[in-house]
Amino acid sequence: MTRYPRDMIGYGATPPNAQWPGGAKVAVQFVLNFEEGGENNILHGDAASEAFLSDIPGAAPWQGQRHWNMESIYEYGARAGFWRLHRLFTGAEIPVTIYGVASALARCPDQLAAMKSADWEIASHGLKWVEHKDMGEDEERAAIAEAVRLHTEVVGSRPRGWYTGRCSVNTVRLVTEAGGFDYISDTYDDDLPYWREQGERDQLIIPYTLEANDMRFATAPGYTTGEQFFSYLKDAFDVLYAEGEAGAAKMMSIGLHCRLIGRPGKIAGLKRFIDYIQGFDGVWCPRRIEIAEHWAKTHPHQRYARPTRMDRATFVGNYGSIFEHSPWIAERAFELELGPAHDTATGLHNALARMFRSASQAERLGVLMAHPDLAGKLAAAGRLTAESTGEQAAAGLDLLTDDERETFTRMNGDYVAKHGFPFIIAVRDYDKPSILAAFHSRINNSREVEFAEACKQVERIAEFRLRDVLPS
């Protein structure tokens, strides 16, 4: 048995209506990453200088040395860039969320005071602006705990949101296990918040962005002018706004850094974008914590028994009758590489149908033979499975006249005599007259053609049955 942990389905074709406050068509959320003073530096006890997200082309870590130019670029973000952005957002009356590195906040009390006076949300951006990918679980767990402790000490309240950025495969799980966070943003996998189950905890995830992000000024391919940044943001906004007008409101995250967008030639594009969106009705510009509060209230999580988390006995017990009297299909499907994408009716149907299709012809014939005649003797005797009873009743086959019952009995016999298996049809796709019409039409097919059609109908019946017990 293999379980594939990645979630490749999300909300699928039918995402929920966000129901943003005031009927907003799009939520545009600005994040300002405050990392200055928390980056790699031997002064901070690190082995080398910083090399990530700066205007130094091809920067590399300097082992055991301070990198004066790198340090001064980060210092620009704290000394000048932050204040330029503070003036821009307070002047536009748009609140932002700060992703604050705890050690950086501790080294910049004036900027911290300005964030608080503007009523900006200050979420945690970890203890230090360093890579987590090579940390062992215990080391990363301790770093998370220390980030929360220092953040609370410096800010005066604990963080309610978390974003590491340079995370490990364990980060989201460890932060969830630490508890106390209204949301975590270390994903880039959706345009809407969603819930992630971790043990007994339901953790809200608010996905972030690396593309509507000024980090692209420091990476290739990326932006070289403020106008390019504005153009990208405008295009993204226009698409999302149009979707919102069509009833599918989404969220647009915009990632910013003091040392990058805080430069005069870059911030011009951001100013242009803010001016642009302020010309539209139905645009909500919240802090991230407000999105979390709204989602928790409007879209609370609802758990259900997920097939891929069941043991074999439970799995087969729940889904062994989806293909009529053929639990071996569920037994084989249990051994597949299943994951979150198979916890829906569509996903699990695919897994079960694969095992049916890959079975021998004799095995598939056995499944066909397990199906009862339509309105036949088993139905009259009340000996159908619960699924078959409900399906036939829904098509009115439990309320036949004597003439209709005689017709079905005769046609069932003729069909079996010719093809060697019962007439099978997904009755939920039909009514009584169309079932009879299909009977008349299909009985004239060759056995090969009719075997293929019967198998197709068996799969369709299974699909309906799964939709009765699982989300689509």
TrEMBL record:
It comes from the Bacteria. The keyword Lyase does not apply. Residues 68-286 form the NodB homology domain. It comes from Parasedimentitalea psychrophila. One of its GO terms (molecular function) is hydrolase activity, acting on carbon-nitrogen (but not peptide) bonds. Keywords: Purine metabolism. PROSITE patterns: NODB. Belongs to the polysaccharide deacetylase family. This is Chitooligosaccharide deacetylase. InterPro entries: Glyco_hydro/deAcase_b/a-brl, NODB_dom, OHCU_decarboxylase, OHCU_decarboxylase-1, OHCU_decarboxylase_sf, PuuE. One of its GO terms (biological process) is purine nucleobase metabolic process. The keyword Hydrolase does not apply.
